[in-house]
Amino acid sequence: MIVLAALLLAPAHAATPAATAPAAARDFVTRLYARYERGNLQPAVAEAQIYAPELVRQMALNGKLHGPEEVGLIDYDPICQCQDLADLKAAIGPVKPAGPGRAMVKVSLRFGPGSDRRSLRLQLVRTAAGWRVGDIATKAQPSLLGGLQSENRRMSRGR
After folding, report:
1. pLDDT for 14-51, tens place per residue?
2. Is there a domain that residue 77 lies in?
3. Does pLDDT of 158 surpass 80?
């Protein structure tokens, strides 16, 4: 009876892993874009601290298949969809759960006053090391991961 009373008196807002997942995912994205908004990505961060393992693997394979003399599928920074960080401002939308250990968040990027907005959608994956970007979707490229996988298969067959 005492245990039942204690359970009934416990705060209704007590944090559960499911309840804190969107908050932790949002914190990851907020910290990620804060570095970009400062305009200085130094010290450099390992890709594995930003991207999920499969995306890291596909990016590395794409670079290897293209070799040192060619630019692979990615000739820009996927997080900012840019090559220059000047005046970057990110508006981060709400994080929406997308299944166990997954979440989606829309990000709107602007590079200085009056510039056009660039919208992207990050698919987030919870790994043992924390939240990571598992895929990036834009209007021009619905799936960075899918694009890398497709190009890597094509290039592997051509060798």
Report:
1. 444 454 678 999 999 999 999 999 988 888 899 999 99
2. yes
3. no
Output the CA torsion sign for 46, 49, 53, 58: negative
Quickly list DSSP for 35-96: HHHHT--PSP--GGGTB-HHHHHHHHHHHHHH-TTS--S--SBTTTTBS--TTEEEEEEEEE
Nearest to 130 by CA among 31, 40, 16: 31
CB atoms near residue 68 (< 10 Å): 6
CATH number of the domain where residue 76 is located = 3.10.450.50
CB-facing half-sphere around the CA of 153: CA atoms within 13 A:
5
Q: Which residues of 70-83 are buried (b: 16+ CB within 10 A; e: fewer)?
A: eebbbeeebbbbee
Q: Which two tokens stand for residue 138?
A: 């834009």
pTM of the predicted structure, to 2 decimals: 0.85
Q: What confidence score (pLDDT) does residue 11 get? A: 39
pLDDT given for residue 16 in this prediction: 45
